[in-house]
């Protein structure tokens, strides 16, 4: 009888778990006959079994639910949300009762009649108003294979049996290793070797298979999610489209159990705080239905679980405000924090961005607990926050609980292991960046300006510290919650993958160990718990903020030597100088004879304009001159140089400020002293009467829509320094100096613009006749000359 | 009602353990000490691929741990899902006792009080019946205190 009961309990619990998702799916698509059948079968089975096992409460509940479902099957009733809720409530109650029976405790008191009444009540209402909505659910006779048909055959095994099997295989591996050692000592015998190899392969295969028995599909992790999201949505009046992916990824059975709670919490948070209500979403221009997606995938020996929503994301500003008002953070410290550090505040205990505590989340159990849980199993949690757009939380957990990367260390003549994730850095105690001081018995290790509490592992564990010739190793150790501290050990030996098994409670009670491992040498080794060590040593748990401040000061100092890009060039007189790149419009080669001198001022003729030459008079030996075109935003100037070298970074303020003439100072670039041209002095030294501005008229291009005009003519004119207006708008006022250019034949110009000179361009090189005053459009010189003559 | 018992010597006293509690008796080899533990936790030892937590009950009873050169046999037991080895001075016999468990008589040494469950009599006279789990449980209480 007991056995039967046991079987009933485990079967019911398992089916319940699997069904929760089915019911929700069925609600979304009530026409899904397969799902309805599955749910119906569940209640039917429960009803049948519990009548036999004499469990009257089960029987009543399942009977009521079965009745309703059979009505739905017959099309007498619709699967409206209320009905589904009532069915779910009954399933929950059955789950509670099962739990109670399994534990052997008293059955929880609950009003079953109320639940059954809820079902019935709906029945009446549905009968009244919903006749027209009812469409009988069409039976789909085996149109697609149901889950039960394709499910592989399984048997139920106690976990202890599997553990025993695992142990057996482990023993076998050890025996194999010993045998292999013995064989190597003896003379080589090929026949024996090949037989042994076969054995080795078998053992390895077997170990793989046995390891798989511990694996479970991530599906199990996801089963409860649809139901939870549905219920939350109903409570909160939100609409969410949930997608689950990667359910077939497998991970360690125990790991699944460890991840359930953090995952549940994150999903709750997403639904409650992340995704907004439909109204709000509409106001924000988002689709009313929020997206929530859970994906799992395997990446190396890790399982990556992503929870992504398109909700509001985390408001870091509010987090910081909360932290400040809670006294956790000073406003100055908050200013120094990067966005990522601010986001990290979400992991601080007791901080939540929730405006108010809701029934769903924000009850003080926050992301700090989630992170602690994830890190306890050697996992990592990362946030990818897009304020206003959504949040993606990534959990990375090891494939199994049992294998972690670790460091083996020696202290007091004993060996210990420590998870690699807990170690920030390792240095020898003779390292120059490290200084160890003592103050009132407390030891302080200062590493690159950061002060850490310093302990020796031997002191914490009460071991003798043997004298050693080689320098001791100092590890900076960080637990998931605490502040990093420095820990001295004899030496760090190795880095390896450790198979961790739980230590007996007797040993765990000491608080400084996290587990144990059995390395190949057969001597058991203990895994240290970083947080436990800090606790045992009673280290203060205050972050050293000084270092961050010092870093800020350094950053400030660095800001003073802000770099700007500069052009390195050689003057015609031979000096090498620098000019801020932002001033230079372009570098061009100009004919030497375009440079001239008038009234003691140098100028250059450029495409019909006359530009001042910034660096005075020059005689050029060559036919062409390399010149820089400078522009301060309003005025152009030409700066002939001998050669242009490259672009370098120079300090915004020259290393030595020594202003004389156009030189503002000296900068040291790549070990070379270079004079920096003072841009202010350069433009201030230009003649104030505007040689250029004489041609201040505009070029009005009548055919602004024409491609050639827009793409070829306009850039050409602009390049020549003319202001260009595309198209002739109605309200355009043509001033003195404005020239109208028409590139299409027959373009007419409004009468009020007719007093301005009009240049007509033609597409053919040959003119149409003697009266044709138009200019061939690719005759640049003629065009430029015509524009300047039209203006004068 | 006949019951099988393992008879052993522990801290100079003859004890009996129900065989249901006993998994095996092994000769102890290497013990890796566990620093920072109560004196009765002698350390860890590997038994094939299993790791045993070795308990020195003599330390609980006489207040001083067994010197490492006198370590001999250990009774292996699975207590609450973990494997333990309890060091004993020697193991004498396994035999069935017709009378089974008898109530305690006389004034018991206070050191034994937490561990003794009753008496078992074999041909050599009465022995203290102990439960192995008590050595482990009491241990954790002591450490916590």
What does this entry show, briefly?
The complex is a heterodimer of chains A (792) and B (145). Chain A has 792 residues and is an alpha+beta fold.
SSE blueprint:
The complex is a heterodimer of chains A (792) and B (145).
Chain A: H1 2-28, H2 33-53, H3 56-74, H4 81-103, H5 112-129, H6 147-150, H7 159-185, H8 190-213, E1 215-217, H9 219-222, H10 224-236, E2 240-245, E3 250-252, H11 253-274, H12 278-283, E4 290-299, E5 302-309, H13 316-325, H14 331-336, H15 339-344, H16 367-376, E6 380-386, E7 390-398, E8 403-411, E9 414-419, E10 423-428, E11 434-439, E12 442-447, E13 450-456, H17 457-461, E14 473-477, E15 485-489, E16 491-501, H18 505-508, E17 513-517, E18 525-528, H19 530-536, H20 546-560, E19 563-570, E20 576-580, E21 584-591, E22 595-598, E23 601-606, E24 609-612, E25 624-631, E26 636-641, E27 643-651, E28 656-660, E29 663-669, E30 672-677, H21 679-684, E31 698-701, H22 707-719, E32 723-726, E33 739-742, E34 758-762, E35 775-776, H23 780-791
Parallel strand pairs in A: 2-4, 9-18, 13-15, 20-30, 31-32, 31-33, 33-34, 34-35
Antiparallel strand pairs in A: 1-3, 4-5, 5-7, 6-7, 8-9, 8-16, 10-14, 11-12, 12-13, 14-15, 16-17, 17-18, 19-20, 19-27, 21-25, 22-23, 23-24, 25-26, 28-29, 29-30
Helix pairs in contact in A: 1-2, 1-4, 1-10, 2-3, 3-4, 3-5, 4-5, 7-8, 10-11, 11-16
Chain B: E1 3-10, E2 13-18, E3 24-27, E4 41-47, E5 50-55, H1 57-62, E6 73-79, E7 82-88, E8 90-97, E9 116-122, E10 125-130, H2 132-144
Parallel strand pairs in B: 2-10, 5-7
Antiparallel strand pairs in B: 1-2, 1-8, 3-6, 4-5, 6-7, 9-10
């Amino acid at each position: 009888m007991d056995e039967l009961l046991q079987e009933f309990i485990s079967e019911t619990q398992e089916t319940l778990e699997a069904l929760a998702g089915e019911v929700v799916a069925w609600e979304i698509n009530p026409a899904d006959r397969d799902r309805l059948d599955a749910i119906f079968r569940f209640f039917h089975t429960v009803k049948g079994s519990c009548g036999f096992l004499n469990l009257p409460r089960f029987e009543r509940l399942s009977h009521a639910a079965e009745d309703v479902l059979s009505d739905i099957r017959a099309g007498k009733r619709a699967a409206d949300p209320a009905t589904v809720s009532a069915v779910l409530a009954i399933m929950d109650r059955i789950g509670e009762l099962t739990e109670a029976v399994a534990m052997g405790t008293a059955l929880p008191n609950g009003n079953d009649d109320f639940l059954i009444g809820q079902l019935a009540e709906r029945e009446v209402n549905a009968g009244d108003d919903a006749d027209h909505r009812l469409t009988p659910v069409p039976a789909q006779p085996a149109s697609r294979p149901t889950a039960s048909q394709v499910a592989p055959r399984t048997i139920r095994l106690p976990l202890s049996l599997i553990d025993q099997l695992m142990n057996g295989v482990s023993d076998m591996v050890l025996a194999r290793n010993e045998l292999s050692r013995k064989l190597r000592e003896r003379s080589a015998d090929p026949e024996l070797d090949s037989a042994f190899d076969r054995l080795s392969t078998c053992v390895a295969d077997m170990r793989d298979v046995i390891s798989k028995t511990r694996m479970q599909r991530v599906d199990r992790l996801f089963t409860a999610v649809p139901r939870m999201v549905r219920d939350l949505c109903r409570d909160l009046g939100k609409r969410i489209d949930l997608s689950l992916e990667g359910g077939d990824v497998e991970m360690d059975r125990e790991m699944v159990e460890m991840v359930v709670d953090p995952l549940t919490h994150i999903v709750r948070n997403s639904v409650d705080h992340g995704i907004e209500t439909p109204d709000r979403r509409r106001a924000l221009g988002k689709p009313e239905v929020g997206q929530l997606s859970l994906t799992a995938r395997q990446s190396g020996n890790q399982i990556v679980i992503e929870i992504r929503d398109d909700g509001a994301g985390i408001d870091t500003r509010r987090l910081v405000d909360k932290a400040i008002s809670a006294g956790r953070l000073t406003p100055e410290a908050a200013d120094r924090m990067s966005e990522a550090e601010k986001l990290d505040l979400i992991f601080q205990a007791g901080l939540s961005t929730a405006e108010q505590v809701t029934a769903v989340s924000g009850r003080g159990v926050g992301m700090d607990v989630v992170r602690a849980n994830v890190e306890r199993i050697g996992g990592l949690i990362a946030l990818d926050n897009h304020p206003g757009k959504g949040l993606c939380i990534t959990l990375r957990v090891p494939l199994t609980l049992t294998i972690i990367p670790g460091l083996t260390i020696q202290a007091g003549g004993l060996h210990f292991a420590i998870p690699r994730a807990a170690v920030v850095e390792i240095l020898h105690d003779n390292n120059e960046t490290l200084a160890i001081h003592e103050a009132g018995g407390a030891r302080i290790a200062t590493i690159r300006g950061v002060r850490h509490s310093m302990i020796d592992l031997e002191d914490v564990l009460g071991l003798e510290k043997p004298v050693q010739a080689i320098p001791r190793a100092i590890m900076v150790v960080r637990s998931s919650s605490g502040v990093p501290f420095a820990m001295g050990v004899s030496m760090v030996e190795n880095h390896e993958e450790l198979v961790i098994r739980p230590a007996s409670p007797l040993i765990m009670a000491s608080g400084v160990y996290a587990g144990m491992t059995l390395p190949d040498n057969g001597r058991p080794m203990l895994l240290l718990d970083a947080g436990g060590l800090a606790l045992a040593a009673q280290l203060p748990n205050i972050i050293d903020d000084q270092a961050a401040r010092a870093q800020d000061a350094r950053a400030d100092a660095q800001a003073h030597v802000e770099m700007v890009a500069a052009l390195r060039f050689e003057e015609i007189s031979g000096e090498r100088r620098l000019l801020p790149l932002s001033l230079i419009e372009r570098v061009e080669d100009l004919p030497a004879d375009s440079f001239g001198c008038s009234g003691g001022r140098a100028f250059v003729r450029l495409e019909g304009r006359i530009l001042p030459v910034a660096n005075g008079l020059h005689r050029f030996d060559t036919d062409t001159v390399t010149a820089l075109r400078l522009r301060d935003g309003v005025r152009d100037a030409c700066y002939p140089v001998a050669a242009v070298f490259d672009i370098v970074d120079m300090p915004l303020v020259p290393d030595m400020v020594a202003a004389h003439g156009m030189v503002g100072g000296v900068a040291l670039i790549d070990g070379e002293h270079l004079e920096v041209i003072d841009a202010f002095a350069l433009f201030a030294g230009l003649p104030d009467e505007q040689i250029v501005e004489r041609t201040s008229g505009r070029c009005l291009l009548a055919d602004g829509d024409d491609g050639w005009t827009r793409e070829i003519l306009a850039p050409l004119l602009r390049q020549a320094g003319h202001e260009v207006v595309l198209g002739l708008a109605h309200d355009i006022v043509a001033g003195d100096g404005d020239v109208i250019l028409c590139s299409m034949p027959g373009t007419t110009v409004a009468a009020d613009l007719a007093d301005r000179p009009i240049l007509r361009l033609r597409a053919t090189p040959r003119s149409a006749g003697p009266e044709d005053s138009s200019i061939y459009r690719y005759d640049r010189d003629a065009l430029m000359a015509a524009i300047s003559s039209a203006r004068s | 009602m006949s019951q099988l018992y393992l008879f052993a010597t522990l801290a100079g006293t003859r004890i009996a353990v129900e065989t249901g509690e006993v998994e095996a008796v092994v000769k102890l080899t290497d013990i890796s000490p566990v620093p920072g533990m109560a004196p009765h936790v002698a350390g860890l030892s590997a038994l094939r691929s299993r790791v045993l937590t070795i308990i020195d009950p003599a330390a609980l009873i006489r207040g001083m741990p067994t010197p490492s050169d006198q370590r001999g046999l250990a009774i292996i037991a699975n207590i609450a899902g973990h494997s333990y080895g309890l060091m004993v001075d020697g193991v004498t016999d396994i035999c069935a006792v017709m009378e089974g468990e008898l109530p305690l008589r006389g004034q018991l040494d206070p050191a034994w009080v937490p561990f003794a469950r009753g008496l078992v009599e074999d041909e050599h006279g009465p022995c203290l019946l102990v439960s192995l789990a008590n050595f482990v449980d009491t241990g954790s209480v002591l450490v916590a205190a």
